[in-house]
Amino acid sequence: MEIMCHKVASGHAVGPALVTREAISFLGNVNPETGMVIDPAHELFGQSIAGKVLIFPGGKGSTVGSYVIYQLKKRGRAPFAMINLRSEPIVAVGAIISGIPLVDRVPEEVLQIESGILVEVDADQGIVRVLDRSS
Amino acid sequence: MYLSREEEEIYRGDKGETLRRMMEILVALGDIYGAERLVPIRSAQIAGVSYKNIGEAGLEWISDLQGRVVVPSILNPAGMDLCRWMEMGISEEFASRQQATIEAYRKLGVTIDCTCTPYQIYDDLAGQGDHLAWSESSAVSYANSIIGARTNREGGPSALAAALVGKTALYGYHLDENRGPTHSIVVDADLQGSDFGALGFLAGGIVKDGVPQFRLRATPSQDELKALGAAMAASGTVALYYVEDFSHRSVTPKAPSGLEPGQTITLNRKEIEEVYEKYPGSGADIVALGCPHCSREELLAIARLLEGKKVQKELWVCTARKIREKCPDLVATIEASGARVFCDTCMVVSPATEGFRKMMVNSGKALVYLPGLGGVQAGLGSTEECIDAALGRR
Q1: Adjacent-strand bridge partners of B183
Q2: B127 φψ region: left (φ > 0), alpha (ψ -120 to 50), beta (else)
Q3: If A3 and its partner were Cys, which of A110, A128, B103, B291 is the partner (CB 3.0–4.6 Å)?
Q4: Ranges of each domain in chain B
Q5: Sign of torsion, CA B87 B91 B95 B96?
């Protein structure tokens, strides 16, 4: 399945989806050293965002979250790519400074993609491809 | 979003990877907010300086950048006085990371003035109608409202991106259509000094991200306007306001014609007093003035109150280094009392507050931020009451 989208940060990546219906505040919700979601109140609590195609409605919280995304990338614990319904400045800036592909303006149905399914994000072409179940 | 040929080249990466990413930031924000194009800026004021806020991640990012800013650019306050950090109780480890952060900005061509009041030390950073990329919320409010310049409240990376490219995306407060007043606030009370912080504390909570138009009994001083805007940018996200007196004479640059506020609110003395009553200064173990950074006039007032006296409690006075350098006599008088005039930093962004229980301030902005950011309780008083507290008189 191919989904049209809008490029926010350029690049191309493939990885297993990690999907949440909740917005993410990178400062506070995510451990910048490990990529684990550490906020017990968050739907993704206890899961790692490292190496995933992280699908979430958008960011929220402190603008320091942009730097947290950069730190995750430097530690090798960042998502491979991110998909938002609508990107806001914290996640957009974080993705750009970190070189993580980020797209938005996708239909809300992307939040129904099952976590673990392989997803390809081609930000430069403006296409998300839902590939297959990963093992 | 429309890009000129030269902007396209930067966006494609023809001018290097740093500029490519900076342009990507500007374009992404322009897309998010519906900008039609970029606009050249006169200056940048860059947040993301205090190591306490940006941490190792932010330092790494700034250090990795290559290039030079192309417009005059200065910094937000740092986490410590860059010279006298030891007196603030700052650890050596923090100091070395903070110094590295400053050095990283210096390499990019940023002028090392760490202040929330750039307009108090430079005349040529902003004028009426100029487009800017400023970050610090009280400076943004002052630039938009008192100077009549145009800036959104930029994040650290977007302000730095604008400084390196020399442009910002044209949206928000850059456009007349977004600069109309949303609320009319009539203040039927005589106000003075810290009352403006209390008023801003209330007004920001009421209008949130709106544009208030105040009617005041008397014309406030520049420092009182500074305090009003700073408090509203903290309790709300107000980035622009207007002030006129009771005879409808404008005190600030005027709103674009044809745009009228939607609702009217009246505040009186009782509501201002309630802010002081709710956040009393009693029981404070430290007093701090200079949020936003003290002007020369404010240093003069503090020096007069302290002359020939000795403080019984820690008293910090925060200002810009260039203001301190311009007023050596005032600084000497203040410091002879045992108080300290710190530069480059403030109580809101420094980890030095952590050792204290309660801080008395004359600032509506500090009152909002100290409990959450500084981990210290806060109480509000006038400048005179704050000095009295420091002298052990209350």
Answers
A1: B212, B263
A2: beta
A3: A128
A4: 5-176, 180-276, 279-390
A5: positive
Query: Does ipTM top 0.90?
Result: no
User: According to the 3-state scheme, what is the secondary structure of chain A?
Assistant: CEEECEEEECCEEEEEEEECCCCECHHHHECCCCCEECCCCCCCCCCECCCCEEEECCECCCCCHHHHHHHHHHCCCCCCEEEECCCCHHHHHHHHHHCCCEEECCCHHHHHCCCCEEEEEECCCCEEEEEEECC
* Entry field: residues in chain A: 135
Equal CATH topology for B5-176 and B279-390: yes
> Which residue from A63, A81, A93 is spatially nearest to A120, judged by alpha carbons?
A81
B254 by Cβ neighbours in 10 Å (0-12 / 13-18 / 19+) ranks as exposed
User: Class of the B5-176 domain?
Assistant: alpha beta
Q: Which residues of B touch A90 (CB under 8 A)?
A: 155
Specify the CATH number of the domain B279-390.
3.30.499.10
Q: Which residues of B touch A9 (CB under 8 A)?
A: 24, 28
Distance from CA of A99 to the nearest CA of B (A): 8
Six token digits for residue B139? 């400076």
- Asked if B29 lies within 8 A of A9 by C-beta distance, the reply is no
- Mean pLDDT in runs of 10 for chain B (394 residues)? 97 96 95 95 96 90 95 97 97 98 98 97 97 96 98 94 98 97 97 98 95 96 98 94 95 92 95 98 97 98 98 98 98 98 95 94 95 91 98 89
Are B60 and A87 a contacting pair at CB < 8 A?
Answer: no
**Sign of the dihedral through C-alpha B158, B163, B165, B168:** positive
Coil vs helix vs strand at B6: helix
Phi-psi region of B249 (alpha: psi -120 to 50; beta: other; left: phi over 0): beta
Domains assigned to chain A? 2-133 (3.50.30.10)
On the question of pLDDT at A133 being above 80, the answer is no
Q: What is the DSSP string of B70-110?
A: SS-EEE--BSS-TTTGGGGT--HHHHHHHHHHHHHHHHTT-
Q: Count CB atoms within 10 A of the CB of residue B55.
A: 18
